[in-house]
Design goal:
By secondary structure, this protein is an alpha+beta fold. It is 49% helix and 11% strand. It folds into three domains: 61 residues, Molybdopterin biosynthesis moea protein, domain 2, CATH 3.90.105; 201 residues, Hypothetical protein af1432; 84 residues, no CATH class. The strands form two sheets. Strands 2, 3, 5, 6, 7, 8 and 9 form a seven-stranded antiparallel β-sheet that branches. It has a two-stranded antiparallel ribbon with strand order 1-4.
Length: 350
Protein backbone atom coordinates (compact mmCIF):
# COMPACT_ATOMS: atom_id res chain seq x y z
CA UNK A 1 0.00 0.00 0.00
CA UNK A 2 1.30 3.45 -0.95
CA UNK A 3 0.23 6.98 -0.04
CA UNK A 4 -0.34 8.76 -3.38
CA UNK A 5 -0.94 12.50 -3.80
CA UNK A 6 -4.34 13.20 -5.34
CA UNK A 7 -2.69 15.17 -8.17
CA UNK A 8 -0.83 11.97 -9.17
CA UNK A 9 -3.86 9.64 -9.26
CA UNK A 10 -4.81 8.00 -12.56
CA UNK A 11 -7.85 5.90 -13.53
CA UNK A 12 -7.45 2.23 -12.69
CA UNK A 13 -5.71 2.69 -9.34
CA UNK A 14 -7.31 0.87 -6.40
CA UNK A 15 -7.98 2.47 -3.00
CA UNK A 16 -6.22 0.79 -0.10
CA UNK A 17 -8.52 2.26 2.59
CA UNK A 18 -11.88 4.01 2.87
CA UNK A 19 -11.72 7.72 1.98
CA UNK A 20 -13.79 9.74 4.47
CA UNK A 21 -14.57 13.48 4.54
CA UNK A 22 -16.97 15.79 6.37
CA UNK A 23 -15.68 14.99 9.88
CA UNK A 24 -16.14 11.29 9.32
CA UNK A 25 -19.74 11.41 8.10
CA UNK A 26 -19.26 11.39 4.32
CA UNK A 27 -17.70 8.39 2.63
CA UNK A 28 -16.15 9.43 -0.66
CA UNK A 29 -14.81 5.97 -1.56
CA UNK A 30 -14.60 2.53 0.02
CA UNK A 31 -11.51 0.35 0.28
CA UNK A 32 -10.92 -1.57 -2.95
CA UNK A 33 -12.61 0.95 -5.27
CA UNK A 34 -11.06 1.10 -8.75
CA UNK A 35 -10.75 4.80 -9.55
CA UNK A 36 -12.23 6.48 -12.62
CA UNK A 37 -11.66 10.08 -13.70
CA UNK A 38 -14.91 11.37 -12.17
CA UNK A 39 -13.94 9.98 -8.76
CA UNK A 40 -10.46 11.51 -9.01
CA UNK A 41 -11.99 14.89 -9.88
CA UNK A 42 -14.32 14.55 -6.90
CA UNK A 43 -11.40 13.90 -4.53
CA UNK A 44 -9.65 17.01 -5.83
CA UNK A 45 -12.81 19.09 -5.44
CA UNK A 46 -13.04 17.96 -1.81
CA UNK A 47 -9.44 19.04 -1.25
CA UNK A 48 -8.24 15.55 -0.30
CA UNK A 49 -4.43 15.83 -0.42
CA UNK A 50 -3.54 12.14 -0.72
CA UNK A 51 -5.06 8.65 -0.36
CA UNK A 52 -3.80 5.12 0.18
CA UNK A 53 -3.46 3.10 -3.02
CA UNK A 54 -3.17 -0.68 -3.09
CA UNK A 55 -1.25 -2.42 -5.92
CA UNK A 56 -1.85 0.31 -8.52
CA UNK A 57 0.17 -1.34 -11.31
CA UNK A 58 -1.65 -4.66 -10.97
CA UNK A 59 -5.07 -3.00 -10.93
CA UNK A 60 -4.28 -0.85 -13.95
CA UNK A 61 -3.24 -3.94 -15.93
CA UNK A 62 -6.39 -5.73 -14.78
CA UNK A 63 -8.61 -3.00 -16.29
CA UNK A 64 -6.94 -2.72 -19.71
CA UNK A 65 -9.64 -4.72 -21.53
CA UNK A 66 -12.38 -2.69 -19.88
CA UNK A 67 -10.77 0.65 -20.71
CA UNK A 68 -10.71 -0.24 -24.39
CA UNK A 69 -14.33 -1.46 -24.54
CA UNK A 70 -16.10 1.51 -26.13
CA UNK A 71 -19.84 2.11 -26.01
CA UNK A 72 -20.12 1.01 -29.65
CA UNK A 73 -18.16 -2.17 -28.97
CA UNK A 74 -20.31 -2.88 -25.94
CA UNK A 75 -23.51 -2.46 -27.97
CA UNK A 76 -22.16 -4.77 -30.68
CA UNK A 77 -21.11 -7.41 -28.15
CA UNK A 78 -24.46 -7.09 -26.36
CA UNK A 79 -26.43 -7.59 -29.59
CA UNK A 80 -24.34 -10.57 -30.66
CA UNK A 81 -24.77 -12.16 -27.24
CA UNK A 82 -28.54 -11.60 -27.24
CA UNK A 83 -28.79 -13.26 -30.67
CA UNK A 84 -27.02 -16.35 -29.32
CA UNK A 85 -29.20 -16.40 -26.19
CA UNK A 86 -32.37 -16.19 -28.30
CA UNK A 87 -31.19 -19.14 -30.43
CA UNK A 88 -30.25 -21.22 -27.39
CA UNK A 89 -33.41 -20.44 -25.41
CA UNK A 90 -35.62 -21.33 -28.37
CA UNK A 91 -33.78 -24.66 -28.52
CA UNK A 92 -34.48 -25.15 -24.81
CA UNK A 93 -38.17 -24.34 -25.25
CA UNK A 94 -38.55 -26.73 -28.18
CA UNK A 95 -36.48 -29.69 -26.97
CA UNK A 96 -36.51 -29.19 -23.18
CA UNK A 97 -32.73 -29.53 -23.04
CA UNK A 98 -30.03 -26.95 -22.43
CA UNK A 99 -27.03 -26.64 -24.79
CA UNK A 100 -24.61 -26.35 -21.87
CA UNK A 101 -21.43 -26.19 -23.97
CA UNK A 102 -22.87 -23.33 -26.02
CA UNK A 103 -23.96 -21.47 -22.90
CA UNK A 104 -20.57 -21.93 -21.23
CA UNK A 105 -18.80 -20.69 -24.35
CA UNK A 106 -21.02 -17.62 -24.29
CA UNK A 107 -19.99 -16.93 -20.69
CA UNK A 108 -16.29 -17.48 -21.42
CA UNK A 109 -16.05 -15.47 -24.63
CA UNK A 110 -18.73 -12.77 -24.41
CA UNK A 111 -20.37 -12.17 -21.05
CA UNK A 112 -17.12 -11.97 -19.06
CA UNK A 113 -15.97 -9.14 -21.35
CA UNK A 114 -19.29 -7.29 -21.06
CA UNK A 115 -19.14 -7.53 -17.27
CA UNK A 116 -15.59 -6.07 -17.31
CA UNK A 117 -16.57 -3.01 -19.33
CA UNK A 118 -16.18 0.36 -17.62
CA UNK A 119 -19.63 1.94 -17.50
CA UNK A 120 -21.40 -1.40 -18.02
CA UNK A 121 -24.24 -0.56 -15.63
CA UNK A 122 -24.87 2.76 -17.38
CA UNK A 123 -24.93 0.93 -20.71
CA UNK A 124 -27.49 -1.54 -19.38
CA UNK A 125 -29.59 1.31 -18.00
CA UNK A 126 -29.56 2.96 -21.42
CA UNK A 127 -30.81 -0.15 -23.19
CA UNK A 128 -34.53 0.34 -23.60
CA UNK A 129 -36.22 -3.03 -23.60
CA UNK A 130 -38.86 -4.69 -21.49
CA UNK A 131 -37.13 -6.71 -18.82
CA UNK A 132 -39.96 -9.26 -19.01
CA UNK A 133 -38.19 -10.23 -22.23
CA UNK A 134 -36.47 -13.28 -20.75
CA UNK A 135 -33.57 -13.03 -23.19
CA UNK A 136 -32.47 -9.50 -22.21
CA UNK A 137 -33.19 -9.97 -18.52
CA UNK A 138 -31.15 -13.19 -18.43
CA UNK A 139 -28.15 -11.45 -19.96
CA UNK A 140 -28.47 -8.47 -17.61
CA UNK A 141 -28.62 -10.73 -14.55
CA UNK A 142 -25.62 -12.72 -15.80
CA UNK A 143 -23.59 -9.51 -16.22
CA UNK A 144 -24.61 -8.03 -12.85
CA UNK A 145 -23.96 -11.40 -11.21
CA UNK A 146 -20.45 -11.35 -12.69
CA UNK A 147 -19.86 -7.85 -11.31
CA UNK A 148 -21.15 -8.74 -7.84
CA UNK A 149 -19.33 -12.08 -7.92
CA UNK A 150 -16.00 -10.30 -8.47
CA UNK A 151 -16.80 -7.89 -5.64
CA UNK A 152 -17.45 -10.98 -3.46
CA UNK A 153 -14.04 -12.44 -4.46
CA UNK A 154 -15.26 -15.10 -6.89
CA UNK A 155 -12.52 -15.76 -9.44
CA UNK A 156 -11.75 -17.96 -12.42
CA UNK A 157 -13.87 -21.07 -12.87
CA UNK A 158 -16.04 -20.31 -9.84
CA UNK A 159 -16.91 -16.87 -11.22
CA UNK A 160 -17.82 -18.38 -14.59
CA UNK A 161 -20.07 -20.96 -12.91
CA UNK A 162 -21.80 -18.14 -11.03
CA UNK A 163 -22.33 -16.17 -14.24
CA UNK A 164 -23.73 -19.29 -15.95
CA UNK A 165 -26.20 -19.64 -13.07
CA UNK A 166 -27.29 -16.03 -13.61
CA UNK A 167 -27.66 -16.62 -17.34
CA UNK A 168 -29.89 -19.67 -16.84
CA UNK A 169 -31.77 -18.51 -13.73
CA UNK A 170 -35.06 -17.84 -15.56
CA UNK A 171 -35.16 -20.65 -18.12
CA UNK A 172 -38.23 -21.97 -16.30
CA UNK A 173 -40.11 -18.94 -17.66
CA UNK A 174 -39.84 -20.45 -21.12
CA UNK A 175 -42.79 -22.68 -20.24
CA UNK A 176 -44.90 -19.80 -18.88
CA UNK A 177 -47.38 -18.41 -21.45
CA UNK A 178 -46.36 -15.04 -22.90
CA UNK A 179 -49.88 -13.79 -22.16
CA UNK A 180 -48.97 -14.04 -18.48
CA UNK A 181 -45.38 -12.76 -18.74
CA UNK A 182 -46.46 -9.73 -20.77
CA UNK A 183 -49.71 -8.95 -18.96
CA UNK A 184 -49.77 -5.21 -18.13
CA UNK A 185 -52.35 -5.52 -15.36
CA UNK A 186 -52.51 -7.34 -12.04
CA UNK A 187 -52.02 -11.11 -12.23
CA UNK A 188 -54.78 -13.41 -11.04
CA UNK A 189 -54.02 -15.98 -8.33
CA UNK A 190 -53.77 -18.70 -10.98
CA UNK A 191 -51.44 -16.62 -13.16
CA UNK A 192 -49.17 -15.78 -10.23
CA UNK A 193 -49.07 -19.47 -9.29
CA UNK A 194 -47.83 -20.23 -12.82
CA UNK A 195 -45.11 -17.58 -12.46
CA UNK A 196 -44.04 -18.96 -9.08
CA UNK A 197 -43.40 -22.37 -10.64
CA UNK A 198 -40.63 -21.13 -12.94
CA UNK A 199 -37.69 -21.75 -10.55
CA UNK A 200 -38.72 -25.38 -10.12
CA UNK A 201 -39.44 -25.75 -13.84
CA UNK A 202 -35.94 -24.42 -14.57
CA UNK A 203 -34.43 -26.95 -12.16
CA UNK A 204 -36.35 -29.77 -13.84
CA UNK A 205 -35.03 -28.78 -17.27
CA UNK A 206 -31.47 -28.93 -15.90
CA UNK A 207 -31.92 -31.89 -13.54
CA UNK A 208 -30.06 -34.38 -15.76
CA UNK A 209 -27.57 -31.90 -17.23
CA UNK A 210 -23.89 -32.52 -16.50
CA UNK A 211 -23.28 -29.35 -14.53
CA UNK A 212 -22.45 -28.80 -10.84
CA UNK A 213 -25.37 -29.18 -8.45
CA UNK A 214 -24.87 -25.68 -7.00
CA UNK A 215 -25.75 -24.20 -10.43
CA UNK A 216 -29.02 -26.14 -10.44
CA UNK A 217 -29.77 -25.14 -6.84
CA UNK A 218 -28.98 -21.49 -7.57
CA UNK A 219 -31.64 -21.57 -10.31
CA UNK A 220 -34.18 -23.39 -8.11
CA UNK A 221 -33.68 -21.09 -5.11
CA UNK A 222 -33.16 -17.63 -6.62
CA UNK A 223 -36.60 -16.43 -5.41
CA UNK A 224 -36.14 -17.73 -1.87
CA UNK A 225 -35.69 -15.13 0.88
CA UNK A 226 -33.93 -15.30 4.27
CA UNK A 227 -37.15 -14.83 6.25
CA UNK A 228 -38.98 -17.65 4.46
CA UNK A 229 -41.22 -15.32 2.44
CA UNK A 230 -39.83 -16.48 -0.92
CA UNK A 231 -40.80 -19.32 -3.24
CA UNK A 232 -41.15 -22.10 -4.31
CA UNK A 233 -40.05 -23.84 -1.07
CA UNK A 234 -40.14 -21.07 1.55
CA UNK A 235 -36.54 -21.79 2.59
CA UNK A 236 -34.89 -19.70 5.31
CA UNK A 237 -31.36 -18.50 6.10
CA UNK A 238 -28.60 -20.98 5.41
CA UNK A 239 -31.01 -23.37 3.70
CA UNK A 240 -30.52 -21.11 0.66
CA UNK A 241 -27.28 -21.61 -1.29
CA UNK A 242 -24.79 -18.75 -1.80
CA UNK A 243 -25.34 -18.74 -5.57
CA UNK A 244 -29.07 -18.11 -5.15
CA UNK A 245 -28.42 -15.32 -2.64
CA UNK A 246 -26.17 -13.51 -5.13
CA UNK A 247 -28.49 -14.12 -8.09
CA UNK A 248 -31.44 -12.74 -6.12
CA UNK A 249 -29.69 -9.38 -5.63
CA UNK A 250 -28.79 -9.12 -9.33
CA UNK A 251 -32.32 -10.20 -10.29
CA UNK A 252 -34.03 -7.61 -8.08
CA UNK A 253 -31.68 -4.81 -9.16
CA UNK A 254 -32.24 -5.47 -12.86
CA UNK A 255 -35.99 -5.85 -12.45
CA UNK A 256 -36.21 -2.44 -10.77
CA UNK A 257 -33.92 -0.62 -13.20
CA UNK A 258 -35.46 -2.10 -16.38
CA UNK A 259 -38.67 -1.24 -18.20
CA UNK A 260 -41.60 -3.50 -17.45
CA UNK A 261 -44.90 -3.83 -19.30
CA UNK A 262 -46.66 -2.30 -16.28
CA UNK A 263 -44.18 0.49 -15.34
CA UNK A 264 -41.15 2.46 -16.45
CA UNK A 265 -37.75 1.64 -15.04
CA UNK A 266 -36.52 3.29 -11.85
CA UNK A 267 -33.10 4.83 -11.20
CA UNK A 268 -30.17 2.87 -9.75
CA UNK A 269 -30.45 5.10 -6.66
CA UNK A 270 -34.07 4.10 -6.07
CA UNK A 271 -33.15 0.45 -6.66
CA UNK A 272 -30.41 0.60 -4.04
CA UNK A 273 -32.78 2.17 -1.50
CA UNK A 274 -35.22 -0.71 -2.13
CA UNK A 275 -32.43 -3.26 -1.68
CA UNK A 276 -31.47 -1.53 1.58
CA UNK A 277 -35.05 -1.93 2.82
CA UNK A 278 -34.78 -5.71 2.28
CA UNK A 279 -31.36 -5.96 3.91
CA UNK A 280 -31.10 -8.45 6.81
CA UNK A 281 -34.71 -9.69 6.58
CA UNK A 282 -34.86 -10.94 2.98
CA UNK A 283 -31.43 -10.55 1.33
CA UNK A 284 -28.05 -11.87 2.47
CA UNK A 285 -26.43 -8.95 4.38
CA UNK A 286 -22.82 -9.70 3.39
CA UNK A 287 -23.56 -9.86 -0.34
CA UNK A 288 -26.07 -7.00 -0.28
CA UNK A 289 -23.78 -4.66 1.68
CA UNK A 290 -20.93 -5.52 -0.68
CA UNK A 291 -23.15 -4.60 -3.63
CA UNK A 292 -24.32 -1.34 -2.07
CA UNK A 293 -20.84 -0.24 -0.94
CA UNK A 294 -19.33 -0.87 -4.36
CA UNK A 295 -22.28 0.76 -6.12
CA UNK A 296 -21.79 3.82 -3.91
CA UNK A 297 -18.26 4.12 -5.30
CA UNK A 298 -19.40 3.30 -8.83
CA UNK A 299 -22.03 6.06 -8.86
CA UNK A 300 -19.79 8.89 -7.65
CA UNK A 301 -19.39 11.32 -10.54
CA UNK A 302 -22.65 10.22 -12.19
CA UNK A 303 -24.83 12.88 -13.79
CA UNK A 304 -28.36 12.97 -12.38
CA UNK A 305 -31.62 14.90 -12.60
CA UNK A 306 -33.10 16.30 -9.39
CA UNK A 307 -36.78 16.52 -8.48
CA UNK A 308 -36.78 20.24 -9.38
CA UNK A 309 -35.50 19.48 -12.89
CA UNK A 310 -31.93 20.62 -12.26
CA UNK A 311 -28.99 18.56 -13.48
CA UNK A 312 -26.17 17.74 -11.09
CA UNK A 313 -23.20 15.42 -10.51
CA UNK A 314 -22.85 13.04 -7.56
CA UNK A 315 -20.05 14.22 -5.26
CA UNK A 316 -20.39 11.91 -2.24
CA UNK A 317 -22.69 9.67 -0.23
CA UNK A 318 -23.06 9.68 3.54
CA UNK A 319 -20.93 6.94 5.13
CA UNK A 320 -23.51 6.14 7.82
CA UNK A 321 -26.65 6.33 5.76
CA UNK A 322 -28.18 4.22 2.99
CA UNK A 323 -30.25 7.04 1.45
CA UNK A 324 -28.95 6.67 -2.08
CA UNK A 325 -31.42 9.21 -3.49
CA UNK A 326 -30.09 11.84 -1.03
CA UNK A 327 -26.31 12.24 -1.65
CA UNK A 328 -24.18 15.38 -1.87
CA UNK A 329 -24.32 16.80 -5.42
CA UNK A 330 -22.85 19.66 -7.41
CA UNK A 331 -25.25 21.51 -9.72
CA UNK A 332 -24.30 22.81 -13.17
CA UNK A 333 -23.71 26.30 -11.75
CA UNK A 334 -21.18 24.89 -9.28
CA UNK A 335 -23.38 24.95 -6.16
CA UNK A 336 -22.94 22.09 -3.66
CA UNK A 337 -26.19 20.67 -2.33
CA UNK A 338 -26.54 18.21 0.52
CA UNK A 339 -29.82 16.53 -0.44
CA UNK A 340 -30.19 15.29 3.14
CA UNK A 341 -30.82 18.94 4.03
CA UNK A 342 -32.90 19.82 0.97
CA UNK A 343 -36.45 19.03 -0.12
CA UNK A 344 -34.96 17.45 -3.22
CA UNK A 345 -34.06 13.95 -4.37
CA UNK A 346 -32.75 12.19 -7.48
CA UNK A 347 -35.47 11.35 -9.98
CA UNK A 348 -33.48 10.51 -13.10
CA UNK A 349 -30.11 9.69 -14.61
CA UNK A 350 -28.64 11.91 -17.23
Amino acid sequence: MNLIFTKDLVPGMCTGRDVIAGDGFIKLLTQGAVLNQSQIDSLRNWGVPAINIDDPTEKMQEKVIAVHMTKTEFAKGYTETIDKIVHAFRHIKKFREVPIAEMQELVDQKIILLAETIGVLEHLHDIRCYSENTFNHSLHVAIITGILGKWCNYRGTELKKLILTGLLHDIGKLVVPLSILNKPGRLSAEEFAAIKKHPQDGYQVLKDARIPENIKLGIWQHHERLDGSGYPLGLIGDEICAEAKIISIADVYDAITSDRVYRRKMTPFEALDILADDLFEKLEPVFCLTFMDNMRDYLIGSSVILSNGQKADIIAFYARDRGFTKPVVCTQNGKLLDLQQEELCITGVG
